[in-house]
Amino acid sequence: MKKSKVETPVTPRPRGFAAMSPEKQKAIASLGGRAAHERGTAHQFNSDEAREAGRKGGRAAHARGTAHQFTPEEAREAGRKGGRRSAEARAEARAASQARQAS
Q1: pTM as predicted
Q2: Residue 4 in domain
């Protein structure tokens, strides 16, 4: 008489990268990124690509409901901070230009 085998579902264990701790994954990925930059093969975002990537991430976060929702006070402060930084950058550029013209 044959005994019937009852098959129990076997969940495969993670292998390779998935089996590593998040810290080890990050360390290995970091080495790969550094190597790509040293070889000159790493992707360099231009401002348009970076802007589009930010938009895409923002849309995805809003769709998932995980986007940060600014309070009116936070939004005002962020606007002030950006405005101050823009003004500082313009002043630095103006001073550098005037220094070059003076010499």
Answers
A1: 0.38
A2: no
